[in-house]
Specification:
By secondary structure, the protein is an alpha+beta fold. It has 2 domains: 257 residues, no CATH class; 79 residues, no CATH class. 43% of the residues lie in helices and 13% in strands. The strands form 4 sheets. It has a 4-stranded antiparallel β-sheet with strand order 9-10-11-12, sandwiched between helices. Strands 1-3-2 form a 3-stranded mixed β-sheet, with helices on both faces. Helix 4 packs antiparallel against helix 5.
Length: 406
């Protein structure tokens, strides 16, 4: 039994790492012909005789534009104005001509393959039944269901949890918000719903195929389904997501670089947290989507303590305060001293009400070895500066001795 569980664990961690590497942009360049073959194979498994035209886009925003052109909502010239002309979104740092050039190439290739522009792509729901997780669950041996469910958090969680290694759902949410912002930040008239629909959002949930791949590795009774699901598994591992229609399938490439903090949240304090091959980039501060100007040092962000504290969204406000520096924020708010240690490197415990938050928050204001003063958020139940400083090292106050600290 122990050997069996060890085997399950090894397969789970191997598959988790493979999927994580793909979404983090570390799996290497994907063969476009192979992606097309996988789409065709996936459609053929459903009984479709005519393979769809596969349009491979370098980024989600490119896919959004291609879909809008196919649907007839906007033409390519309008999109070119959006990203290079007077309607360009604020705070853009991407290479707009590269994005537009890629979109033009996507559209040209689609037209050459017979795709009709300005015609709404037909949803495959009524005529095509793609494999789904329910079919696998129904086929699983009853006595193994509970055991296999226990491994879902290892395999599936890495691609679906908001703050874990794969960061997939977090990335998906930030991408979706960024796409919406890119449109809403322009002067384009018309509702956002003319460009995107819920069917696209559903395809951001294909992370379940990571768990399916693990099940096929460990359960012999599911091997009959492996051949049916294999193209979808490989496609989902090779791309960010895909948008299927009856005659067209839009495939969005994985990012080429993803940066995370030590808690595996999307984060970078000096460049984009996510970058796609066409240059479209996303900026994130500990999993909070932020304007590029807050991150790129060569572009003055204009953030001041006063401006940071006036940001309506609580998460964005906290991110702005961290970027400005809590030490400056606390001076602005006139924080109340709870406890002051004689040693400035142990610091001063402060309490303050952050605007928009109904509870008191506590901070440790401390001086580092270089003489610089900074502030750190600490739990609201700490009572002394020494206890707060000890907490930052994972110690109790009576275990903390700053003289032997390393």
């Amino acid at each position: 039994m122990l050997i069996h569980r060890d085997l399950l664990n090894r397969h789970a961690h191997r598959i988790r790492d493979e999927w994580s590497q793909s979404i983090l942009g570390r799996a290497g360049e994907v063969d476009k012909d192979e992606v097309t073959n996988l789409v065709h194979a996936m459609y053929s498994r459903t009984g479709v005789n005519k393979p769809p035209v596969v349009i491979q886009c370098a980024s989600p925003i490119a896919a959004l534009m291609v879909r809008a052109v196919l649907k007839g909502g906007f033409n390519i010239n309008t999109w070119e104005q959006v990203f290079t002309g007077s309607m360009a979104p604020r705070e853009s740092t991407y290479d707009a001509p590269t994005i537009v050039s890629g979109i033009r190439l996507n559209i040209q290739e689609a037209v050459l393959q017979g795709v009709v522009l300005n015609g709404t792509p037909k949803s495959p729901r009524s005529t095509i039944k793609f494999p789904n997780m329910k079919d696998i669950v129904r086929a699983m041996p009853t006595h193994t269901t509970t055991t296999y469910e226990a491994y879902r958090h290892i395999v599936w969680g890495q691609r679906s949890r908001r703050t874990r290694a794969g960061g997939w759902a977090s990335l998906g949410g930030i991408i979706w918000a960024a796409c919406a912002w890119a449109i809403e930040g322009t002067k384009i008239m018309g509702p956002w719903e003319t460009v995107v629909d819920t069917h696209v959002a559903e395809k951001l949930g294909t992370h379940w195929t990571a768990w399916a791949e693990w099940l096929f590795c460990v359960e012999p009774e599911l091997q009959s389904l492996n051949k049916i699901y294999r193209p979808m598994i490989q496609l989902n591992k090779s791309c960010m997501y895909w948008i299927p229609y009856q005659d067209v399938c839009i495939v969005v490439a994985n990012p080429v670089k993803v940066r995370q903090d030590d808690q595996q949240r999307l984060h970078c304090d000096f460049e984009p947290a996510v970058r796609f091959a066409d240059g479209w980039s996303l900026y994130s501060w500990h999993n909070v989507s932020v304007p590029s100007a807050w991150i790129i040092k060569s572009r003055p962000h204009g953030l001041t303590p006063q401006k940071a504290l006036q940001i309506p969204n609580i998460e964005a406000r906290r991110a702005a305060c961290e970027i400005v520096g809590w030490d400056k924020i606390l001076r602005e708010l006139k924080a109340r001293v709870i406890d002051r240690d004689p040693n400035p490197q142990i610091g001063t415990l402060l309490e303050v009400v952050i605007p928009g938050v109904s509870w008191m928050e506590r901070f440790l204001q401390v001086q580092c070895g270089t003489g610089r003063t900074f502030a750190l958020p600490v739990p609201p139940n700490v009572q002394t500066a020494r206890e707060a400083n000890a907490w930052t090292y994972g110690l109790a106050a009576n275990e903390y001795n700053p003289e032997v600290r390393t």
